[in-house]
Amino acid sequence: MLSSAVTTKGQVTVPAEMREKFGIKPGDRVGFVEENGRLIIQPHPQGVAAAFGILKARKSVSLSAMDETIKAKRKNRAGA
């Protein structure tokens, strides 16, 4: 088992072996999960793909309805 000390600010250094194994680079974010009395640290996904599913739609909208709305907004901007 690899270990690391916790600083007075609550910071922990992820051992190099684990950073390399999981592709964790400077500036990356990690997540913490409690599971069955254990603390699990894991890479935290970033980017657009990571945000997928965060927002919940109140109702679905068809692509044609979206296209019509975009056309109307562009028309309004052009006339303004």
Automatic annotation (TrEMBL):
<dbReference type="InterPro" id="IPR007159">
    <property type="entry name" value="SpoVT-AbrB_dom"/>
</dbReference>
<dbReference type="InterPro" id="IPR037914">
    <property type="entry name" value="SpoVT-AbrB_sf"/>
</dbReference>
<feature type="domain" description="SpoVT-AbrB">
    <location>
        <begin position="1"/>
        <end position="46"/>
    </location>
</feature>
<keyword id="KW-0238">DNA-binding</keyword>
<dbReference type="GO" id="GO:0003677">
    <property type="term" value="F:DNA binding"/>
</dbReference>
<dbReference type="Pfam" id="PF04014">
    <property type="entry name" value="MazE_antitoxin"/>
</dbReference>
<protein>
    <recommendedName>
        <fullName>SpoVT-AbrB domain-containing protein</fullName>
    </recommendedName>
</protein>
